[in-house]
Every structure is written in C-alpha cells, then in structure tokens.
C-alpha cells in the first residue's frame, strides 16, 4: 500500500516538475568571487553595455536598438533543448522546424519582479521561434511555408503575419505582460492602445537576418490594469504612422472565466462562471479498466446553453452558438494510464461507430448528447488503434466522420516511453 | 580546486534541477529559485572552509539554498526551515494535487517537496530541516496517505 501511494504521488509530482536544466556552474563561481573584483567587473560591463545602448539608440532612434543575430551569445544547452523539443513534441505536420543549434540570447528585461531573458531560434522555413525564460514564447509563421498535406506544392500554409503578440493575464483576466514580435519591413513602430483612449509606444529590439524582426515586452502599469483602461490592442505602424497590423485583446466576459467550483457530490472542478453548478447532474459514470472513476456532468449555462465537465476536460456551448456547432465535436482525451473517447453530439447523431485499425468496431450511443467511452488497453498498440469515428443517424446514414492519426506518438500509454531527442520521451 | 570545492561542484552538476524545483516551492517561481540556487551555491562555495563536517555537505548546502530562497520571498530569515510555507509553483497544472497539498501543514508540504522534487533521502531531509529522521519518516507516511486518499477520492490516477 505504501509503495502504491509512493508511486501515485511520485507520478503526480514528476508530471509537474520543471525539467529545464538552466544550470550554470561558471555563474556560481563568478558569484562566489570576492565582492571587490566582482564590482569592478560589473562596472566595466555596465560601461560597455551603456556605450552600446547609446550607440544603437543614436543609430536607430530611441527607443529602438539593433542586435546582430549571429554575433549574439549562443543560447545555453537547456534552451536549445527547449527549441528542439518543439519539433519532436509537435503533432504530425505541425513541427515549427526550429534550428536549435542556432538559438541566440537576444536581450533581458525585468518584469513580474524578475529578470527574464529572450532567446530566439530561426526555423528551416525562414521563420523563427522565441521564448522568454519561464514566461512565454511563440513561433512566427514561416516565410517559405511548406505545402499542406493534400495541397499542391507552393500553396502557402497561411498568410505571413506582420505582428504577433501574446499576453500574460492578471488575476482579473486583463493583459498584465505583453510580449511579441513585429516583422521587419513596412512596420517601424509598435504601440499599445488602451481602452478608453490613449496609447504608448513600445521599445523594440530589432534582430538582424535570418530573424529580421523586432521584439518587445511591456509590463502594463497599474493604471492600465482595470477593465476601463486595459490594453486592448497592439498595433504596428509604418514610418508615416499608418497602421500596418493590429492584434486585438478583446474584453473577456467575466462569465467565461474559469474558476474552481464544487459539483453537487463535492468534487472540485474548474468551470466557467456561467456554469450553473448547483443544477449539475451526473450523466455518465463508470470505472475504467485500471479501476479509476470516469464521470461526466452537465449543467445549464447562464444565458442559455449548457456546460459539461468530465475528469479530463470541460466546456460550454451557448444557445446562440448551437446552430453553428458541429454535428459531432469529439476527440481523444489522453491520460497516462487510460484513454477516453469523448463526444458532444447534435440530436441527428443517434450513434457513433468507432472503427479501429485491426477491424474492430464499437457502437456507442450518446446519453443526452454526450459520449464518454474508454478506448481500452487492447487498442493501445499500433495496428489496433482508433482510426475513425463515424456519426450515424437513426436510419444508419453517415452524418459525420472524424479520422484520427493512429501513428501519432504520445497519445496511447505504453510501458517504455521512447527517447525522441532533446530530452523528450514519449510513447510510440 | 580543493576536495570540498569539487564536491560542491559535483553536487551542483548532479542535482541542479532538484535544487531549483524544490527552491521554487519556497521562493514562489522558477526564475527567483534559479537565482536562489546560484546565490546559495556561491555562498556555500565561498564559505566552504567553514563547513564543519558535523553533518553531510549536502545537508549543509541544502540549508543554505533554502534560506536563500526564503530571502527571495522576503520571509523572516530566522524562520525554522520546517515551518516554511512551501507551495506548488504552477498549481493549475494539477489542481487536485495542489488543493490536497494545501491541506497539509507547511512542514509536511516542504518534506514532500524535498522528497519528491529533490529526491532527498530521509537522512538528508532530516539534516536539512534540522529534525529527527523518525519525524521525517512519520511525516512522509502521513502526508502520503492523506494525499493518495485525496487523489483516489477525486478519481485522479497517475
């Protein structure tokens, strides 16, 4: 029993432990040096940095600076691993194709009370990915997109965005930290625009080819952390002040915000405020093959519609969006020791047929428009996995179909995860 | 480098992630935890001649690192280590576990983190927190039972 508890706890804590190795022994040795030597060195470094900043500011106009990408310091190995991991954990066809070995340290900035470092890595398709240490990151669309599966070569995967911005929200759901990039070209400046009027120009750090983009970070001041004054958009302008790109941050409806709630049986879950939890009823409940409890509850949503929650997910479908909803919204919910097929169905879908690679077929009937069904261990091995889910009408006609990707890794549990490189392990 | 300096470097290289993750539960985030580990090891390295071999070098370094992490949070530095109010850094990644951990006393929580994030032996935990090894064993057993029971009640399996 103790071993079981030990395993259970160890597995949970291991799953949330941060695996990033950002160690730096030389930094420890440097910090351990007598203060006098260190102060002198810091002074020299400080003067050099100030000189560089003044020079770049003069050349490019404050508040902008320029970094020569290939002269920037290489990123440490753990960061390179992070960029490499993006390629190996991505689902089929979605790899950003970063070049981890070329990742560089671009700049650092203080926000959230701590210093953060920006690292950037180019991609093989002419784009780039970036990350702020322990904060956030993203990838810019490629300049030379690969053709999408099933499309002729040369068809772009999507438009090349000029601007990309992401936010780290405050507890109230408003932008607290804004980070992003702007592609070099027409765009010359970037502003943050506030609700209720007004804007502020953001300092940009431009990075030379092959990145050819500018980066910004903005810690929103307290005065702009209310709903009436919050950052509503980031805009890029050309040299004449004309807007060339805009990224909007719409005001979130407080009812959409997920909070910790308690179901009638006392189970704690995370659900949007619109979910009327007191009226929740348990629709589905069974034990999975590993003995764990599986359940699904539904409840009305304030303003019409309904919300649902099950062990591994939740959602709400508002009445006003019901007409536009798909006949069969479904997917696989992945756990480390069980796999669940879930579906939310319109009334025209009377039954779902699950077709497996080995020819096995399972028919599952919805309960009040929901399905929660275990894909059992006999279907974990390649050659036996879920291939297609087909929605059938009461007369047996196919009304919806969803193909799955049986050879995608990291979906089905296994005994021995396989090393994928860059410290990533996953089940085949 | 002297033998003690080499031992500190070896400890750092072999156990860095454990130090950083456990320190984060005290300092509140990974960035300040990294700084606490760097600064803590620097302090240990600088004052290694003062280490009096009464306990293990590892326990001594752990105490320094946790105190440095405590400083990052601006908590009273004289607070006994087993009273540190350590918490999960990203509770949203496992809300049920986070909630269950919150119901444990600060001492139990820290000992759980040192055991499972840092993979410390009972002896090193005892030395780090300056408590008996038997107390560590009993505390861990109680915490394990409480947490496992809670996870099973919630239907959460690893």
Structural features, described:
The complex is a heterodimer of chains A (428) and B (158). With 428 residues, chain A is mostly beta strands. Chain A folds into 3 domains: 21-60; 63-145 and 158-248, no CATH class; 254-426, no CATH class. Chain A has helices at 2-16, 25-32, 35-60, 77-89; strands at 64-67, 104-111, 114-122, 128-132, 137-139, 163-169, 175-183, 189-194, 199-201, 204-207, 213-219, 231-237, 243-248, 258-262, 268-272, 281-287, 293-300, 305-310, 313-318, 328-334, 339-345, 351-356, 361-364, 370-375, 386-392, 398-403, 418-421, 424-426. In chain A, β22 and β23 form a beta hairpin. Chain B is mostly helical. Chain B has a single domain (3-153), classed as Butyryl-CoA Dehydrogenase, subunit A, domain 3, CATH 1.20.140. The N and C termini of chain B lie far apart (44 Å). The model of chain B has no long low-confidence stretch (mean pLDDT 84). At the A-B interface, α1, α2, β3 and β17 of A face α1, α2, α4, α5 and α7 of B.
The beta-strand count of chain A equals: 28
Low-confidence residue ranges of chain B? none
Report the sheet-strand fraction of chain A: 35-45%
How confident is the prediction overall: mean pLDDT of chain B?
84
Structural class of chain A: mainly beta
| Tally of individual domains of chain A | 3
**What is the straight-line distance between the termini of chain B?**
44 Å
Structural class category of chain B: mainly alpha
* Largest sheet, strands/sense/barrel of chain B: none
Overall CATH architecture of chain B? Up-down Bundle
């Amino acid at each position: 029993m103790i071993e079981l508890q030990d395993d259970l706890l160890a597995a949970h804590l291991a799953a949330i432990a941060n695996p990033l190795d950002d160690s730096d022994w030389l930094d420890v040795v440097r910090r351990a040096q007598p203060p006098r030597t260190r102060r002198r060195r810091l002074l020299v470094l400080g003067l050099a940095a100030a000189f560089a900043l003044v020079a770049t500011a003069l050349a490019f106009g404050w508040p902008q600076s320029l970094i020569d990408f290939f002269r920037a310091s290489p990123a440490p190995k753990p960061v390179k691993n992070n960029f490499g991991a993006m390629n190996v954990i991505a689902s089929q066809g979605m790899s950003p194709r970063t070049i981890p070995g070329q990742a560089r340290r671009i700049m650092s900035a203080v926000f959230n009370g701590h210093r953060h470092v920006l690292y950037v890595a180019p991609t093989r398709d002419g784009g780039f990915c970036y990350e702020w240490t322990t904060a956030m990151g993203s990838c810019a669309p490629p300049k030379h997109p690969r053709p999408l599966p099933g499309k002729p070569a040369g068809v772009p995967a999507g438009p090349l965005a000029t601007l990309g911005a992401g936010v780290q929200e405050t507890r109230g759901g408003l932008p607290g930290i804004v980070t992003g990039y702007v592609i070099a070209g027409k765009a010359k400046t970037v502003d943050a625009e506030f609700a209720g009027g007004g804007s502020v120009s953001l300092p940009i750090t431009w990075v030379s080819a092959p990145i050819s983009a500018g980066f910004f970070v903005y810690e929103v001041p307290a005065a702009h952390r209310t709903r009436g004054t919050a950052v509503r958009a980031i805009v890029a302008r050309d040299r004449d002040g004309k807007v060339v790109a805009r990224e909007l941050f719409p005001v979130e409806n407080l009812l959409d915000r997920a909070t910790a709630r308690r179901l009638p049986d006392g189970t704690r879950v995370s659900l949007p405020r619109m979910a009327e939890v007191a009226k929740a009823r348990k629709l589905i409940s069974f034990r999975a093959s590993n003995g764990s409890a599986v359940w699904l509850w539904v409840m009305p949503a304030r303003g019409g519609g309904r919300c649902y929650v099950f062990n591994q997910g939740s959602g709400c479908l508002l009445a006003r969006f019901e007409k536009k909803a798909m006949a069969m919204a479904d997917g696989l919910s992945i756990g480390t020791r069980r796999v669940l097929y879930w579906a939310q169905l319109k009334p025209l879908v009377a039954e779902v047929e699950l077709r497996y690679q080995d020819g096995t077929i399972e028919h599952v009937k919805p309960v009040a428009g929901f399905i929660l069904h275990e894909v059992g261990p006999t279907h974990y091995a390649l050659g036996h996995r879920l291939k297609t889910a087909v929605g059938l009408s009461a007369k047996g006609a196919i009304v919806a179909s969803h193909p799955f990707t049986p050879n995608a890794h990291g979906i089905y549990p296994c005994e021995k995860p396989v090393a994928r490189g860059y410290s990533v392990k996953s089940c085949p | 480098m002297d033998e003690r300096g080499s031992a500190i470097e070896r400890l750092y290289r072999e156990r860095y992630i454990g130090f950083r993750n456990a320190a984060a539960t005290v300092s509140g985030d990974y960035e300040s935890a990294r700084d606490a580990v760097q600064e803590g090891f620097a302090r240990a390295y600088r004052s290694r001649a003062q280490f009096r071999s009464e306990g293990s070098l590892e326990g001594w370094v752990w105490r320094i690192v946790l105190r440095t992490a405590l400083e990052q949070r601006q908590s009273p530095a004289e607070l006994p280590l087993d009273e540190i109010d350590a918490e999960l850094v990203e509770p949203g990644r496992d809300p049920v576990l986070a909630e269950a951990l919150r119901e444990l006393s600060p001492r139990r929580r820290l000992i759980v983190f040192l055991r499972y994030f840092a993979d410390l032996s009972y002896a090193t935990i005892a030395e780090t927190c300056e408590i008996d090894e038997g107390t560590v064993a009993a505390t861990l057993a109680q915490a394990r039972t409480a947490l496992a029971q809670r996870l099973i009640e919630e239907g959460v399996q690893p």
